[in-house]
Fold this protein.
Amino acid sequence: MAKAKASQAAAESAAGQAGAIDGIPQPKLDWAGRSNQWGTRVKPNAYGLRLGDLNVGIYGEIPDQWQDQTRNPRGAIPRKGVPPLGFAIRDKSDLWAESSGDLYEEAIQRRWAPATDIPWNTLKPLNEGLERAICQVSTELCQYANCDVETITSWQHQMAYGYHEVKQFLATASFDAARQFEAFRKRALSNGGGLGLEGPGQVNRMILESRGGWTEAVTYLFLMRGTFTMTMLRYLERYAHNDAERALYRYTLQDKARQMTYGLEHLQYSIAHQDDMALIMQQLLFIGDRVWAREMKDHVLMEALCVVFAGGISDAGTTGYAIYRQMMGDFMNSYVDTCEWLGVKRQPEMMPNSMTQYLKVN
Amino acid sequence: MASVFPSEDWFNEVRSVFNSDDSYRGAGGGSCECRSAMKIGRRVFLLNFEGIECAPVVEADKGALADVDFYLDMPLADWQAMVKDIAANGGASLHYTLNTLDLDRAEGLSHSVHEDQFREDLFFRYNQTFQFFFDASARIKTSFG
């Protein structure tokens, strides 16, 4: 009935305009009456009009597999003859997390701008060893951010448009990472120092080169690297030396926590909907742990963190190293606990000694 | 007249400051959907955020902890030290941010009854909102009974 009324309105509108100006083609408006579901009127609620609120009627039907190979928005009428775009990720279990729409809104609403929201004027000259260490950590955090952007965008375009909530959220996640790059580059170049030494990048390469699917990339990018970055940001906030750094670490931590929510919820969904996924993740982490352990043998980041935590070089080997070990203990406990919570078994004998040694710290 | 910490009046006075200042909605703050509790010694205060505002704060019994996403738990003396630090510095100093207090305590600051990691992680996702809330207490007069 709604469809018929819309068609009638379109026809009347066309008739009213016919021949209005000589030489102007008469509009057909034959598209105007076409909609799979017309008359939709979603109202804003106390929180405004959110992406997830639009999931009403057919617009909220999110199938387990999305067959359409075009950019047709979910709920629109497909146009015949559009060449397929070859989206590789068309199964819901390969990308879905129920909270994606809400996380997208959260990322938009809780945005911050490094240019103006960080009190850069609170930066004061630090002892040279400390400034060099902070700049080194900032350099590596820039690299982590670059890896996030590249990884997310390299998978995002392969995802079918039927799951636009995930694609929208991941757009904010890559923007978050771009902001992380910007913010830490600014920190390195704003207090008399400069960028330091490039990190080894072995874990970055592992994340970027994971080819088994987005879920595999999520395992490495969020569960493994994300847990580590979050832990490191928490300790950096704890041992910040001025308000600018404190804000910088805390705001970035919030962004990372939001990404972790997507990542863990997706892994949980994937495990619940795909046979053997927990076992597959166990195998992936078995491989990933070894790459991780190899990268952690590089002393640069560890030493820089020890200097930051100690407030200078003189106590880095004692106070700083003790705090570093505590941080690694928190990371390892959180990493293993999260795996177990997801249902991915992580016996210590499955992991390198260089990782399990920290399980005993805290 | 100073409000006594902890009390419903104290929390609601802070809440008025928080809700009426737009600056708390930017710079890492903003929309927040979270049900939390502050466990101050044996007393429990429910702190719920809906959108960009904090709802009226009420005191509850310990059983209410089962319904919140997470709760922050410290002895009364430690809470008082935090509030005094915020008042003295206009905001939490480096040793009294919520993240620092969580890291520095053997049992942590943030807890949950349900152990649902998604709900526990709201402490980190909305950390700045909670920090803004407590930092707003620097703008009211506080007494400690």
